[in-house]
Amino acid sequence: MAINLLTDHPEHPTGAHWGFTRTIPEIAKRLESGEELHLLVSPKSRHLHQGYGPNVFYITYPWSNEQRNLRTLTEHLYSPLRLPLSRIDVFNTLMAPLVNISWSLVLHMKTMHAFTAPESLTPLARAYRRWNYPRSTQAAEAIIINSESLRSEIGKYLDVDARKLKLIYEAVDHDLFKPGDAGVARARVAPYGVTKPFVLFVSSLWRYKNCDGLLRAWALARRELGDRQLAIVGSGRDERYVAELHSLAKELGIAGDLVFVGGVPLEETVHFYRAADVFVYPSFNETFGLPILEAMACGCPVVTSDTSSMPEIAGGAAIMSDPREPASIARGIAEAVGPGRDRLRDQGIRRADQFTWSATAAATLDVYREVADRRRHRMVRAPETRDLKGAPPTGRRLLLAGRTAAEGQRRLRRSGGGIARAQRGPPSAAPARGRGGR
């Protein structure tokens, strides 16, 4: 099996990168005899993926996302030549190469921004995704998705066999994101200019994240919030939008309350979550919304949007607001810093506990094994066809298979069925003891 890790910029890793760095070690621990995991990396990104274990190998491509166009070109042209040399049987990637010769394809779809937030992409990137999504989903044997919301979006914009969609929730790193001493955390965030009690926003500053809606809500709620600051943590990916936010803050008369922290290392965000009075995530569209769980795991009350995946992930443990209505966001903030804070904190911790990378990895490996078994069964049933095409009569070495049909069926029965486990519903919501709703 091979996983394509080339789509991240080595110097600016995204949430997808952090997810893989948590999932891959868990997958590696579960590999059985005869199973191998190969990672597609570049010379600049390989150092980010070390120490995964003896059955994890590397396939080096010239570029990752520091050279997006060249990376894309090699994914399409180099993969059909290079992957067969490592006898890859299952290939996990975002977009199918133009030619898929010797492997079964698993897509790992995390967003539909080409349709739902087109302004967050360049025209070329948007056109590329809109052209390749239909082709890739048709070529794939399985498509891993991270929420029911994403399932709905795929159904709206693409013609996909619903049986291919495998729901596997992402998770939170509980070794990193956990409750801690708020006083110590406040001391850690003070050098960033956050020196008063504060409300927190954490995200890259794309327009669809609706930080402007949060600023308008802050202007409405500030009298009820006392002497607090609003801390904006996240890199300014859309420079024009960031300039608009600064202008809007001045126009609303709240510039003195705001601290634009910028991007910080993942480990530093923990201190912001622990020190904040409330975390606000008023995005218009998310296919998962990992910061919701990060905040909850740290014991920070959450206010988020009542649309797309956010109610699904919050599971009744956050205050829900209408992202189109600043007044609704303002009411949510005021409620979260008030008497309901302790309830939200307790419910959030319980909710975040239900999402673990161990469970995510186990379900992901189930999908890979299911696809590998299905592939091997096809080869066993049609030896004459393979012989006519010039393949060895005994079949190729399967990295994730290598088992008899009976053994494969017994594995599926023992695991409860790879498909069923991967398509399980959302973790049960935290008990709602009041108004609930990242």
What does this entry look like structurally?
With 438 residues, the protein is of the alpha/beta class. It has two domains: 2-167, Rossmann fold, CATH 3.40.50; 182-352, Glycogen Phosphorylase B (Rossmann fold). 44% of the residues lie in helices and 13% in strands. The chain is built from 18 helices and 13 strands. The chain has helices at 15-30, 68-77, 79-82, 113-116, 123-139, 148-157, 182-189, 211-225, 239-252, 266-275, 290-297, 310-314, 326-336, 341-352, 357-381, 383-388, 405-415, 418-422, and strands at 2-4, 37-41, 56-60, 90-93, 104-108, 142-145, 165-167, 198-202, 229-233, 258-262, 278-281, 302-305, 319-321. The strands form two sheets. A seven-stranded parallel β-sheet has the order 3-2-1-4-5-6-7, with helices on both faces. It has a six-stranded parallel β-sheet with strand order 10-9-8-11-12-13, with helices on both faces. α11 links the parallel β11 (278-281) and β12. α1 (15-30) packs across α15, α7 (182-189) packs across α10 (266-275) and α8 packs parallel to α9. The chain is elongated, with a radius of gyration of 23 Å. It starts with a strand and ends in a 16-residue tail after the last helix.
